[in-house]
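Preliminary data (for renewal application), magnesium ion complex.
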Amino acid sequence: MIIIKSPREVELMKKAGHVVGEVFNALEGNIHPGMSTLDVANIAEKVIRDAGAYPTFLGYGGFSGAVCVSVNDEVVHGIPSSHRILREGDIVSVDVGATLDGYIGDACRTYLVGICSEKAKRLVEVTEASFWEGVSHVRPGARLGDVSHAIQVYCESRGYSIIRDYTGHGVGSHLHEDPYIPNYGQAGTGPVLKEGMCLAIEPMVAEGHFAVRVNKDGWTARMKDGKLSCHYENSIVVTKDGYEVLTMAPKEDK
Ligand code: MG
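Predicted structure:
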């Protein structure tokens, strides 16, 4: 069942989302070669806790990090580690959840570490742009498949593949609510969108084949072919005539 949030709940979602945006403000320009993925997570966790929020992923299903930090061919669910050192040319995705007053903001950005290859930069740009392409279809009366299809077409027409094993999701007082939001599908299918639905839309895009395997740590999902992957996500609310993004950093310019 897809939960319709009341105006009061949407206000709480905005407050939680704002905390996530503040995390991206703190990370932007501050991820450098030589830092560990734990250093990155610590910056994020401090912002979350200073805002009086809780890092949603910490302890979720037994996850041991405050946020997920995934490097290069790692797609999602990378566990922050003091041993994992970022190197010049890496791309690193930071997936952030913040729970405030019982409601959750969930979003992800992928950052360039130092100077990156053109192909890495293009993957990051296309992944982000595919989110905006998908979300541009969100309005009451649209079908969820319209969003999924738009993301798929945008990425595949540029030579990338869409990861199948992970999807976006409804978000609210629980991290994962109905519906599942695949980044591929048919337009004109799926649930009808309604005002007050809160959705985490999150393209996960691969440079090579979309097949993924999970590391022995039980969490880190990485590309089977070892090629780059990228992740971009925002939590949004369906509004009367479109959508509003809940998790943008104040400095970001969308
Ligand atoms: Mg998510």
